[in-house]
Amino acid sequence: MASYDRETEIKAFDDTKAGVKGLVDAGVTQIPPFFRLPPGALKSPEPTSTARAEIPVIDLGIINGDPEERENVVELVRGAAERFGFFQVLNHGIPQSVLDEMLEGVRRFNEQELEVKKRYYTRDSSKIVRFNSNFDLYQSPMANWRDSLACTLAPEPAAKPEELPEVCRDIIMEYTSHIQRLGHLLFELLSEGLGLDTQYLNDLECGKGLSLLSHYYPPCPQPELTLGTSKHTDPDFLTVLLQDNIGGLQVLHEDQWFDVPPIPGALVINIGDLLQLITNDKFKSVEHRVLASKIGPRVSVACFFSTHVYPSERQYGPIKKLLSEKNPPKYKGVTVREYLNVCYSKGLDGKSVLDKFRL
Ligand code: OGA
Ligand code: NI
């Protein structure tokens, strides 16, 4: 009977199409049970480290045509991708006004009239613009204190400007054109870090697909009982994340959670599962999560480099040039679609998807 109640409650919540923000607007002081963490889960594996976060911060501004400066940046990027799977970048070329307006646009979308916002509410992952609360509401063991808007932007079939919500249409187009340029540069630096030709990863079409996933984390009355985002790795090649100044993002490093502190003007870059797969574990796709907070809303925008509904049959396996007798392939080949289908069917349940494709 208990599980029946849970399903009814989840369905009723979903049917409001108002998301977590709807609960907060209604004045809840206790979070519904289906948002609750299993006892002790927040603590595992270890308490948050009190050590200063050492997630590298890399200044891209020094890349100015001088080959030696570029080589230094490549080394920093390679080291970060191998050790942490995460780094932050400064002087990435995207104006501060564009970053600010992108966060504002997400806030406007979530805070507009419910009747307008509701029109975008869907769980159909083939839709190019999707607003919902918890894409995995019906699959995951617990819901997260978060509402999200996802837009597929490349390649075709992708969102046309007029299909995007009006309140954030222009800034999504502008922001993502900057992100595509930055992604191209990052794939160049990562290729060089692997000892491959500069355009290797771009030629493999790692930067061909782009989806924007924006998150709105309303203030939570009982933040110690739930999470903003459950621990997961990203199912893409590379993610560029813009976060506001509230904080709460953490990464798992050597069995401890480390904060990824907000730095004004910085973007957070992390390696996704598919880049770990094709580099045969050289670059690490690392688990991360977002804590819930009494302070909010927190807004963030993740840009995923990965094709989404695009029906490519291209197989991705470990890059042959990186393999040797001492470094045999660890994964079988997979299409992006096969990979994403596994992710969508299980949701954020804390288990690795990458392991399913290990040889
Ligand atoms: C994600 C993610 C972190 C954040 O969208 O995959 O990890 O800060 N987001 O919202
Ligand atoms: Ni993520």
Question: How would a textbook summarize the main sheet?
Answer: 8 strands, mixed
| Structural class category | alpha+beta
Q: How many domains is the backbone divided into? A: 1
CATH topology: Jelly Rolls
What is the CATH class name?
A: Mainly Beta
Number of separate strands: 12
Unreliable residue runs: none
Order of helices and strands: HHEHEHHEEHHEEEEEEHEEH
Helix content: 25-40%
Bound molecules: N-oxalylglycine, nickel (II) ion
N-C termini distance: 41 Å
Number of helices, counting only DSSP H or I runs of 4 residues or more = 9
Q: Can you list the strand order of the major beta sheet?
A: 1-2-10-7-12-5-4-3
Which range does the strand content fall in? Answer: 15-25%
CA-based gyration radius? 20 Å
Question: What's the CATH architecture name?
Answer: Sandwich
Give the overall average pLDDT: 93
Shape: globular
Topology:
Blueprint: H1 2-16, H2 19-25, E1 57-59, H3 67-83, E2 86-90, H4 96-111, H5 114-118, E3 129-132, E4 147-154, H6 169-193, H7 200-203, E5 210-217, E6 227-232, E7 238-243, E8 249-253, E9 256-259, E10 267-271, H8 273-278, E11 288-291, E12 298-305, H9 336-346
Parallel strand pairs: 1-2
Antiparallel strand pairs: 2-10, 3-4, 4-5, 5-12, 6-11, 7-10, 7-12, 8-9, 8-11
Helix pairs in contact: 3-6, 4-6
This protein binds N-oxalylglycine (OGA) and nickel (II) ion (NI).
Nickel (II) ion (NI) binds at residues 232, 234, 288.
